[in-house]
Amino acid sequence: QKEVEQNSGPLSVPEGAIASLNCTYSDRGSQSFFWYRQYSGKSPELIMFIYSNGDKEDGRFTAQLNKASQYVSLLIRDSQPSDSATYLCAAYYGNNRLAFGKGNQVVVIP
Amino acid sequence: EAQVTQNPRYLITVTGKKLTVTCSQNMNHEYMSWYRQDPGLGLRQIYYSMNVEVTDKGDVPEGYKVSRKEKRNFPLILESPSPNQTSLYFCASGRASPYEQYFGPGTRLTVT
């Protein structure tokens, strides 16, 4: 069973702070990892993906991958109220399929 | 405008009454997929398609059928819906794989 775990409860951060989200995965064969953002009542939208160990930056977002420890994280710098959403972590484990975590809600407090 | 469309957006039906949820994309994507999203369970893949006439099961295919007769369309068919199929359904497409998928707006289905 390919599992992606996002165990943290809702995350509240003050505006301008860094929001940090973590995700672990069970299958060492997973090749690439994705972060999606989903606003309430809306569909998921891709923020970024990462497949190499280390950091990948895109604007205020940084994804970090550690394959040895089987975790992926997402940092949101200078958090804005518009970043308030649920963030979904997903892992690609081949066969053209993704496994999604249950998501973490982020609330940015002005 | 590049988009994935789904119809209907909301549907309330009764147990056993066959229904079809349509999905269409205008990006000439080869990869299309259906997901369901349930509270506490997250997004789970139902079926996916790599191209016309090529479909395969995802993690939760039971009770669903799909077809891919045209590249742009990927309908989801529930031949005999049951209350446990009450869910929020998303269709998604990608150029050639699940990388960089675009999701449709969702269809909220209630089966009574």
Question: What features would you describe in this structure?
Answer:
- The complex is a heterodimer of chains A (110) and B (112).
- By secondary structure, chain A is mainly beta.
- Chain A has strands at 4-5, 11-14, 19-25, 32-38, 45-50, 54-58, 61-66, 71-76, 85-92, 98-100, 104-109.
- In chain A, strands 2, 4, 5, 9, 10 and 11 form a six-stranded mixed β-sheet that branches.
- The model of chain A has no long low-confidence stretch (mean pLDDT 93).
- Chain B is mainly β.
- In chain B, the strands form two sheets. In chain B, strands 2, 4, 5, 6, 9, 10 and 11 form a seven-stranded mixed β-sheet that branches. A four-stranded antiparallel β-sheet of chain B has the order 1-3-8-7, with no helix packed on it.
- The N and C termini of chain B lie far apart (36 Å).
- The model of chain B has no long low-confidence stretch (mean pLDDT 96).
- The chains are: A mainly beta (110), B mainly beta (112).
Summary tags:
heterodimer, A: 110 residues, mainly beta, six-stranded mixed β-sheet, five-stranded antiparallel β-sheet, 11 strands, 0% helix, B: 112 residues, seven-stranded mixed β-sheet, four-stranded antiparallel β-sheet, globular
In short:
Chain A is built from no helices and 11 strands. The model of chain A has no long low-confidence stretch (mean pLDDT 93). Chain B has no helices and 11 strands.
Give the arrangement of secondary structure elements:
The complex is a heterodimer of chains A (110) and B (112).
Chain A: E1 4-5, E2 11-14, E3 19-25, E4 32-38, E5 45-50, E6 54-58, E7 61-66, E8 71-76, E9 85-92, E10 98-100, E11 104-109
Parallel strand pairs in A: 2-11
Antiparallel strand pairs in A: 1-3, 3-8, 4-5, 4-9, 6-7, 7-8, 9-10, 9-11
Chain B: E1 4-7, E2 10-13, E3 19-25, E4 31-38, E5 42-51, E6 54-57, E7 65-66, E8 76-78, E9 87-94, E10 102-103, E11 107-111
Parallel strand pairs in B: 2-11
Antiparallel strand pairs in B: 1-3, 3-8, 4-5, 4-9, 5-6, 7-8, 9-10, 9-11
